[in-house]
Amino acid sequence: MKRCTSYFSIALLFWFGSSSPVFAHPWKKSVDLGLTVTQNSYSDSWTGGEAGNVNWVALANSVFEKKFSEIINSKTTAKFSFGQTHSQDQQTKKWAKPTKSTDLLDIETLTRFTLKMWVDPYLAFRFESQFLDASVPEVKRYVNPKKLTESGGVSRVFYKTENNEILSRLGLALRQIITEEVVDTVMKKTEINSTSDGGIESVSDVRLTLSDKISYTSKLSLYKAFFFSESDKVKGTPQEDYWKEVDVNWENTISVSISKYVNVALYNQLLYDKDISKKGRFKETLSLGLVYKLF
Fold it and tell me: Going by C-beta distance under 8 Å and a sequence separation of 6 or more, which residues neighbour residue 55?
């Protein structure tokens, strides 16, 4: 947490020390709110074994960008989503407790120093978590686990217009994962554990407007650790070198605007972290729902 505080202190110093009221540009703001609901229901006399269900997902995506001075540009991206599935028993037709279907809390701040060179230095901070950890049903844990990533290096904008941007960056990164682990389900006791590692990070962001109704966004994150705080604990086990593998997080979204408030979105995500699973994890969501743009 001290490293997080130091990052923001340095960023604020650059922002306010180098900016001037004459030069400062206005904020570029974008906030989208969305709600998707799917519902099936059957009467008690219905035959065939079908059961009713209700699935809902609420989301909020926002981007705040500002040029504080001739050389300092700051961009904060936040993505929040949470959804549940309510299912009905096939025999009794009673509704079971809802289960979580979607959960995401992702905030990233990127500060670039535009020196009019081939590449621009940058500092970045990213916070990743979920609203509810439901891995142990007996013990509710909120905003768990927490992943903090601080990085710095060089970046380059390969393509940029008013509605399109392709930006890549490469740098050194430090990660800390703070986990509230359950030690006693009866007494509902937990303890806080944390691990840290450091290595090299590559992030590429793509934002393209394909037409007045279709847009595409993509984010590819690659991370290769050079050291791991728990390496001694896994030494001599089959998992000894798992932490050295490259972690992958690739997100893609195609969004189609049907009308002012109705939107269709296809989202898929590919994750690979050998410490969690030897196989890649894939998620795909096709949604039709309401979207409201605040800005």
Answer: 36, 37, 38, 39, 83, 84, 85, 86, 101
Q: Tell me how far CA of residue 69 lies from CA of 23, 76, 133, 195, in angstroms.
A: 6, 16, 41, 37
**pLDDT of 230-248, one tens digit each?**
999 999 999 999 999 999 9
Q: Give residue 5's pLDDT band: very low, low, confident or very high (50, 70, 90).
A: very low
Choose among 103, 53, 50, 49: nearest CA to 79.
Answer: 103
Could you tell me the two tokens for 257?
């605007």
CA angle 166, 172, 178 (to 5 degrees): 105
Q: Does domain 2-293 have CATH number 1.20.58?
A: no
CA torsion angle 14 15 17 23 (round to 10): 130
- Could you tell me the two tokens for 248? 């992958």
